[in-house]
Amino acid sequence: MSPPPALFPALLGAAEWPRLAPAVRRMHGGEARLDAHGVARVEGAPHWPARLLRRWLGLPEPGAGQALRLEIRRRDGRETWTRHFASRRMRSTLSRGADGRLCERLGPVSLRFALERDGGAIAWRLQGVRWLGLPLPRALCGEVRSRSGAEDGGYAFEVDVRLPLLGRLVAYRGRLAIDDAR
Known about the structure:
The chain has helices at residues 7-12, 22-28, 48-57, 138-141, and strands at 33-43, 63-75, 78-84, 89-96, 102-106, 109-118, 121-131, 134-135, 143-151, 154-163, 167-178. By secondary structure, it is mostly beta strands. The chain has a ten-stranded antiparallel barrel.
């Protein structure tokens, strides 16, 4: 019996996967264990409701030039991503949802994304949010813009999360280099 296909190649499909930049395919490919390091710039609203929600969800606090370490562990069609920012550890679990879309679970929140190839990058399009298992009305979900791409041959990422009334909850962007030594 062959192992299940890696999550991102399966979600994007055989026609789109090879058209991604090599750095993107390597980061989102099928290695059971992947470690990377880099630097990120993190932004977010400074008011206390946003700070409290970031803390509760394990999201990083704002700061420029934060060291970032990423661990990806893949097993049985699921991926656990642990991001070690300077201020906080952020862990999420990614899997294929029943509807064939990417599900990312972050504490009490489950996000559902449609993945699309955007040139050599992956664009993540928010489709829905569940809070403690209950679907939120679309008007409360806000906006999540996420892109996994390449810059100067290396892996680059950007995430921007905006919520109604709160504004920018968190936005982070940066670059990562895969650690080849194991």
